[in-house]
Specification:
alpha+beta; Nucleoside Triphosphate Pyrophosphohydrolase; 2 domains; eight-stranded mixed beta sheet; 6 helices
């Protein structure tokens, strides 16, 4: 059963997307006013549900235009002697290195870029392991719809350098994993990566 607040969040997100799409396609001035009002109401709902200021929500969507589509997040999966690479974030929790996909990057190049920026590791993307709907697999509710792509990369070399997003990196045994940021990486997702690592014929998991 879906928690009430989570269901309301999904409704508010859908209203925002419908209003944004309507504003993009309609030519009628009165319809534009109606869609804009619906969009503002969705921002008010999102602000209330996330205990934040409406201007903050408005700023998030201000640059959004046209037909609203999901955001893409890539995660690099790197193994070394059967240990998985994780990066430590500023709050002390750990996750697979990754982040938003830039419009100038491909899936593989974005995974490699984020791997180097967050872990200081040079790697080469080999294959996609999974394509996950964040809403289905990760604990933290998000205002945006997010698609997470897990990319297995082979380790070449590297040395961690302090940066604005992470404070450390390390390789972990599967039976000694640290506390994870489950909004970005869950234990189930790491287990999935392990199964793929041990099976060259592993089929991509999606949805």
């Amino acid at each position: 059963m879906i928690h009430v607040s989570k269901q309301w969040l999904e409704w508010a997100k859908e209203l925002q997307a419908l209003a944004q799409t309507g504003l993009h396609y309609t030519k009628d001035v009165y319809d534009k006013e109606r869609f804009q009002r619906i969009r503002e109401m969705s921002w008010q709902m999102l602000a209330t549900l996330n205990d934040s200021d409406m201007n903050e929500i408005k700023a998030l969507f201000h640059i959004e235009d046209g037909y609203q589509t999901p955001k893409v997040d890539t995660r690099a999966v790197v193994w070394k002697e059967d240990k998985i690479l994780l990066v430590q974030e500023n709050d002390g929790r750990w996750a697979l290195p990754g982040g938003w996909m830039d419009i100038t990057e491909t899936v593989s190049s974005n995974a490699e870029k984020e791997l180097f920026e967050e872990a200081g590791v040079v790697g080469k993307a080999d294959r996609i392991i999974a394509i996950h709907d964040h809403h289905r697999h990760n604990a933290v509710n998000q205002i945006f719809t997010i698609i997470k792509i897990f990319v297995e990369c082979h380790y070449i070399n590297g040395e961690f350098k302090l940066n604005s997003e992470t404070i450390g990196m390390d390789f972990f045994n599967m039976d000694h994993l640290p506390t994870l940021n489950d909004g970005k990486t869950t234990y189930e997702q790491i287990e999935l990566c392990w199964r793929a690592h041990k099976d060259e014929s592993f089929k991509i998991e999606f949805d």
